[in-house]
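Task 17 of the worksheet. Students: predict the tertiary structure of the chain below and write it out as structure tokens. Keep your answer in the requested format; marks are given for formatting as well as content.
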Amino acid sequence: MLGIGLFNENIKIALGSIRTQLLRTVLTIIIIAIGITALVGILTVVAAFENNLNSTFASMGSNTFNISQYESQLRGSGRNEIEKINPIITYSQAKTFKEKFNYPTALTSLSFVATSNAEVKYDNQKTDPEISVLGIDEYYLTNSGLEVTQGRNFNSFDISNNVYSCIVGSDFVSKGLLKDTNPINKLIAIRGAKFKVIGVLKEKGSTFGNSRDLRVMIPIQLARSLFSAPNINYSLSAMIQKAELLEPAIENATMCMRKIRKLNPIEKPNFGISRSDELVNKIANITGVLGISAWLIGIITILGSSIALMNIMIVSVTERTREIGVRKALGAKKSTIAIQFFIETITVGQIGGLLGIIVGILVGYGISAVLNLAFVTPWGAILAAFITSFIVGLVSGLYPAIKASRLDPIEALRYE
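Model answer:
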């Protein structure tokens, strides 16, 4: 009980010292908070990026691969190299591939982006010209990992008979034209053609400011007739229902596409094939590098904060030399003096850490909102910040506490 009472007394003395040196304490807290803010803020934004990118690319169905004009990665070239420009995938090539690629358990989908600036009308209302219209077939949603929360997906009858029906993004129902009404079987107009809504997609959010919930999907042939722009680039995707057949299926698809593109055996492919799991792994690698960079920046900033805290506590020890002498003359032990300064330093560190966490989360939330990224509470960053601020206080208080405990009481009483 005596030990606990002495510890509580030290806490009271430490807190009293903090209050009497309010300006210095506030400045120290701000210095620590800046370091923790940098760490938490960066990790919050990284977590938001990671969540957003993973939800974007992982939305592809499992055991799925895409065939497109280029691979799904940044295209670059060396200084002295000429970048290879692949020809687009035409409708006839895409259709031929879908007909000839009859691999076991494969579901092949054909699609294209008809426009990204359509205007959609419902009754007397209309949207801004910012709606994406996609021409798809009955397998597109399955292969893309998209879900219908209301209504249904297209079936083979809808696609083969060019039924004037559509599937809309969640924004149409949550805050758009079809808000506060049952959207199923409602008629919306696109370029003068009326489509019956048969389904509503599950919310997907935004990617780099582009909403994935402001889109309308219509049968591919109707999209081709309404949006007859030249040089339309088509995309293909295939889902293999048995995971063990994915690799041979990709090899088969590559050979099939090479024949369709009329490539000789020594020519490199002039198209790209990307697997869903490869995309997710690439995103994980990118976000991993971002996370490591965030830690490095945060650690450098926090290192500066800890040095500043240590210097301020050393100054505090110097200024309170006479106080320390009086306490030692009255019987205070070295450990008691050391604990007092430890508690002061750790308390300041924890207050600075708490302030930094709050500001860091707010900064991360603000940046996420500006970039239209879904905010993710960075629990790992918060835990790391608490531990880091504790370690900063512990390490920063070590030398000042030892210095204070070793002061000679007679010399300390003489100090002015």
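Marker's comment: The radius of gyration is 32 Å. Residues 276-319 form the longest helix (44 residues).
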